[in-house]
């Protein structure tokens, strides 16, 4: 899923909306973390970043903590 979205962003650019759906226990946090990691590393031809930042919004404190840890683990690999 992350690879497909990465390809779409490369080909279609920014400014579009996407909905990702997952069932319970299917790895949503990992998908979100890897997608953030992938999006922030997309660069334009001139070397500038395509996205200055990636914002993740959740409705649960526990999920906030889980996502923060997942993203930090990926960044430190």
UniProtKB/TrEMBL annotation:
<dbReference type="Pfam" id="PF18766">
    <property type="entry name" value="SWI2_SNF2"/>
</dbReference>
<dbReference type="InterPro" id="IPR040980">
    <property type="entry name" value="SWI2_SNF2"/>
</dbReference>
<protein>
    <submittedName>
        <fullName>Type I restriction-modification system, restriction subunit R</fullName>
    </submittedName>
</protein>
<feature type="domain" description="SWI2/SNF2 ATPase">
    <location>
        <begin position="19"/>
        <end position="75"/>
    </location>
</feature>
<dbReference type="InterPro" id="IPR027417">
    <property type="entry name" value="P-loop_NTPase"/>
</dbReference>
């Amino acid at each position: 899923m992350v690879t497909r979205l990465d390809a779409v962003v490369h080909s279609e650019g920014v400014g579009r909306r996407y909905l990702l759906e997952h069932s319970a226990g299917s790895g949503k946090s990992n998908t979100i973390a890897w997608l953030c990691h992938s999006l922030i590393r997309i660069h334009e031809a001139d070397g500038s970043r395509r996205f200055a930042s990636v914002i993740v919004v959740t409705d649960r404190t526990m999920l906030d903590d889980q996502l923060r840890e997942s993203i930090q683990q990926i960044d430190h690999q």
